[in-house]
Amino acid sequence: MGKASAPEPPDPKETSAASTGTNISTALANSYLNNANQVTPDGTITYTNDGFTTIKDPYTGQSYQIPNRTATTTLSPAQQAIKDQTDKAQLNLGTLANNQSGFLNDYMAKPFDGSNDATESRLVQLGRERLDPIMAQQRDALSTRLSNQGIKPGSAAYDRAMTQQGQTDNDAINQLILTGHGQAFAEGQAIRNQPINEITALLSGSQVSQPQAAGYTPSTIPTTDNAGLINANYQQKVANVNAQNAQTGSLIGGLFGLGSAFAGNPAFLASDRRVKTDISKVGETDDGQNIYSYRYKAGGPMQLGLMAQEVERNTPDAVREFGGVKHVDYSKALSLGA
User: Fold this and answer.
1) Residue 284 is part of which domain span?
2) pTM of this structure
3) Is 276 helix (H, G, I), strand (E, B) or coil?
4) Does a structural domain hold residue 4?
5) Could you tell me if 181 and 91 lie in one domain?
């Protein structure tokens, strides 16, 4: 009895469309489940659909409607009042900074003058008022010490020691002048930068706050493995062909086995279509003869064999008629006698 043919493998495009559709439906369901509307003491967060975007799968040609989700945050009355007041304060600061910055074009166009003679002179004056008495005291102390050592004024040793003390006093005065100049420069720089610092401080307090969606969980759509589906479809088709070839080979092997049983002792088997029933084609021999499964009308199990009427057209000497029924010599019909 012939075996049933293997079913055709599924169309990879249909499989892909089914998989993609399921993936999209699952992703949409997860989006709804993961992003429930929220109600808090400070306000609410609600999720709504704002139309749809149509996406077409280039492989299957299927189109899918993807909803455009919108997250809306609504503050409680108290929080909204606080935000309104904060926005107004920031707007006022920004307006004030804008108004004060109007003069910067002319202000910054003027080159910065680092000299500040008045301030520098005042600083040097204050320094000398403290430094001069100290230097005079040091000179007197030096003169007394030299006299005690027997070094008299006018001597070379005395003049050399007093010259060194003068150099020390001069270095202190130079350092005082440099310090006074540095402080005067820093003061002038601070005065010049003060308007800019004020405007910068105003602007830093008026920065725009970007709205942020809280608690949103994005959903991703899994990728459909189209290449895998196509390869699986190919492997399934190859398996079907192998299964059908194996089935046909089994049928042909059975017929050749049947024919070989009579190769040494030719005999004819009743193969007339008229004496058979439940006839069904199940394969072909290598030379193109049809193989059938059938039962004899007289009874008996399902069998495999050829039809005498078909064999007679190709190999007449392999067919004989006995009692009005055509019989086939399988050894000749299958060329086993050659």
Assistant:
1) 229-333
2) 0.42
3) strand
4) no
5) yes
Structure tokens at 221: 């759509």
User: Does residue 278 come out as left (phi exceeding 0), alpha (psi in the -120 to 50 range) or beta?
Assistant: left
* Residue 323 placed within a domain: yes
Instruction: Count the Cβ atoms, other than its own, within 10 Å of residue 269.
Output: 17
Chain-centre distance for alpha carbon 331: 70
Of 209, 168, 195, the closest CA to residue 99 belongs to: 195
- Point out which residues pair with 40 in neighbouring strands: 43
Per-residue pLDDT of the chain (338 residues; tens, 9 = 90+): 334 455 677 788 888 888 888 888 888 888 888 888 888 888 888 889 889 999 888 888 889 888 998 888 888 888 888 888 888 888 887 787 787 777 777 777 777 666 667 767 777 788 788 888 988 898 889 889 888 888 989 898 888 988 998 899 888 888 878 887 777 777 777 777 777 777 677 667 655 554 555 566 777 777 777 767 676 777 777 666 666 555 555 555 555 444 444 444 445 788 899 999 999 998 888 788 899 999 999 888 888 889 999 999 989 999 999 989 999 988 888 875 44
